[in-house]
Amino acid sequence: MKNVLTLYSSARPRGNTFAMVKVLTDLIPLQALYLDDLDIRDYDYDFGNQGDDFANVIDSMLKADVIVFACPEYWYALTPAFKRLFDRFTDLTELECLKVKGKALRKKQFYLFTTSASKKPSDAFVSVVSHTLNYLGWVFAGLVHVYCENKLDEGEAKLVLSDFVEQVSRG
Ligand SMILES: Cc1cc2nc3c(=O)[nH]c(=O)nc-3n(C[C@H](O)[C@H](O)[C@H](O)COP(=O)(O)O)c2cc1C
């Protein structure tokens, strides 16, 4: 069994994105962090923000084999908490002490989990993640989407998560 870390974000802590993560939690052991509860500050050109939770999140990512970004689509974009985290990935490319960690994350597998009110996520939404991972040299291993016009259907979520569960269970 691979070691899975899920970072999730949503404007409602118990909404559809949480429900998707909850379905996964019932299927496999994983660590889940709710990004909106963490203190991850905006990118700072002068790096005056280094005492926040960013370094802890990166260390948690380094301990995992598989990292899941679970994020609803809001106006073709990531949530503000994910946008902040992605902006902060810049630190991994600029700060000497963090560059080695950014490179170590190239050995991990990254997945994007999302819910939206459309049959599939928009190209704009997915490409923010795929381009960022590609730029950093991180592996975009897969996308899992659950259609949620209203409340997430747990049966459907279980079904769309089955391939992912099989892959991480293989070890
Ligand atoms: C502010 C906002 C913007 C949204 N924008 C989109 C969108 O661009 N495309 C889409 O398909 N659904 C959109 N939706 C629907 C959500 O993606 C969908 O309901 C999702 O499951 C909500 O997850 P949550 O409960 O974790 O917030 C939007 C919802 C909100 C609240």
What secondary-structure arrangement, pairings included, does this model have?
Blueprint: E1 4-8, H1 16-27, E2 31-34, H2 54-63, E3 66-70, H3 80-88, H4 91-94, H5 96-104, E4 109-116, H6 123-136, E5 139-147, H7 154-169
Parallel strand pairs: 1-2, 1-3, 3-4, 4-5
Helix pairs in contact: 1-7
The protein binds flavin mononucleotide.
- Main β-sheet, in a few words? 5 strands, parallel
Helix content: 40-55%
Count the strands?
5
Quaternary organization: single chain
Shape: globular
The SSE order reads: EHEHEHHHEHEH
Q: Architecture, CATH level 2?
A: 3-Layer(aba) Sandwich
CA(first)-CA(last) distance? 4 Å
The CATH H-level homologous superfamily: Flavodoxin domain
List all distinct small molecules, including ions and cofactors, that are bound in this structure: flavin mononucleotide
Widest sheet, order of strands: 2-1-3-4-5
What structural class do helix, strand and pairing data support?
alpha/beta
Domain NADPH-dependent FMN reductase-like: 3-145
Pfam families: FMN_red
InterPro entries: Flavoprotein-like_sf, FMN_Rdtase-like_dom, ISF_SsuE-like
Protein name: NAD(P)H-dependent oxidoreductase
